[in-house]
UniProtKB/TrEMBL annotation:
Protein name per UniProt: Anion-transporting ArsA/GET3 family ATPase
Pfam families: ArsA_ATPase (PF02374)
Signal peptide residue numbers: none
ArsA/GET3 Anion-transporting ATPase-like domain segment(s): 17-290
SUPFAM superfamilies found in the cross-reference section: P-loop containing nucleoside triphosphate hydrolases
InterPro entries attached to this UniProt entry: ArsA/GET3_ATPase-like, ATPase_ArsA/GET3, P-loop_NTPase
Gene3D superfamilies hit by this protein: P-loop containing nucleotide triphosphate hydrolases (3.40.50.300)
Length: 376
């Protein structure tokens, strides 16, 4: 049975939909999909901000912006007839973490934290920090939108994590790290419940000093001491973010290509979202191949061999063999999508045909949006 159609226009037209999260593995076109949805929604009349996590800066180029940073920037060149607008930004992980510190601590504490070497490493490259800060920034954008009406739709291009939906776990993981038992033991190894552990801790600390160096442990202890007041805030915002993600105002769109590995990853996304009771709209399958020439691969090869035996001009033979290759690709993609659909028949989908050129400007984003909104 053919899956239901994923109607992106209906989703963006619903003013109750305030957040669309595009998720999927790397290299499947999440950034392009997020941008195309954002452009289409803005030209339909929504006030949109799109947040990308893509370090390749493709979104900035396709939206006609020289660069993107942690501040939303207006996109020019949209069709203004419906009164919509579009802002775009790219997550700056460290800047977002710095803003959290500045917003939730005193100037003296903030200075101590921002200058701490352990914090600088944590905010720049610690595992899970990017995913957490993506959700932190989403929370900030949502708060601003609710407060001043800057936007009525936020489109998020999630980090390209291989382990699907890491960003759902990242808030809890990072907050657990920051108020974890080990870091608190570093802060006060001889106080309260850790008094009995002081001898053992001193032995561990001595060994770590030899391996890592005393300065690293000192930096960690100094960081934890300065950061202690913010621990609870991280956990609270993590819970608020998770609640926001699971609300009726948010919807997830899983993005894939018609390849085995990408669809396997998409299946993981779909199942995980279902397990977490997250609102899933459906799956977008990008770069699907198609042709209007109704000649099978076998027939094309047969004709090409006849031309070769008759010593005809090779250009026709080359074209026929290329067509045969394309028909094999189409058949393989169809089989992969049928297997996915048979296992998850309730999941709506939209197919986006492969374009002959890269997506580099607003016009090509509109083309992707039109393909996305067309029923297959």
């Amino acid at each position: 049975m053919k899956p239901a159609f994923l109607d992106i226009d209906a989703i963006t037209a619903d003013l109750g939909t305030k957040i669309i999260i595009c998720c999927g593995s790397g290299g499947v076109g999440k950034t392009t999909t997020a941008a195309a949805i954002a452009v289409r929604a803005a030209e339909a009349g929504r006030k949109v901000v799109v947040l990308t996590i893509d370090p390749a800066r493709r979104l900035a180029q396709s939206l006609g912006l020289g660069e993107l940073d942690n501040t939303p920037r207006p996109v020019a060149g949209l069709d203004p007839v419906n009164g919509g607008s579009l802002d775009a930004m790219m997550l700056d992980m460290k800047r977002t973490f710095d803003d959290v510190v500045l917003a939730h601590s005193s100037p003296a504490k903030a200075e101590a934290i921002l200058s701490n070497p352990f914090y600088q490493a944590l905010s720049s490259s610690f595992a899970g920090t990017q995913e957490y800060m993506a959700m932190e920034k989403l929370g900030q954008l949502h708060t601003q939108a609710e407060a001043d009406g800057s936007w009525d739709l936020i489109v998020v291009d999630t980090p390209p994590a291989r382990s699907a939906l890491d960003f759902l776990d990242a808030p809890e993981h990072l907050s657990s790290l920051l108020d974890g038992r080990f870091l608190r033991m570093l802060l006060a190894p001889t106080k309260g419940p850790f008094r009995i552990m002081s001898v053992g801790f001193n032995l561990v600390s001595s060994a770590m000093n030899k391996v890592l160096g005393a300065q690293i442990l000192t930096d960690v202890q100094t960081f934890v001491s300065a950061f202690e007041a913010l621990f609870g805030g991280f956990r609270q915002r993590a819970q608020e973010t998770f609640t926001l993600l699971s609300s009726d105002h948010t919807t997830f769109v899983v993005v894939a290509t018609a390849e085995r590995d990408a669809l396997r990853e998409a299946a993981y996304f779909v199942d995980r979202l279902s397990d977490e009771d997250m609102p899933l709209s459906g799956v977008v399958v990008n770069r699907v191949h198609a042709t209007e020439l109704r000649v099978s691969a076998e027939r094309a090869i047969s004709i090409a061999e006849d031309l070769d035996s008759e010593q005809q001009l090779p250009i026709e033979e080359v074209a026929l063999r290329r067509h045969a290759d394309l028909m094999r690709v189409i058949a393989r993609e169809k089989l992969m999508m049928e297997r996915f659909a048979s296992a998850r028949p309730e999941v709506p989908r939209a197919l986006v045909q492969a374009l002959p050129t890269d997506v580099t400007d607003l016009s090509s984003l509109r083309s992707v949006g039109a393909l996305l909104a067309a029923e297959d």
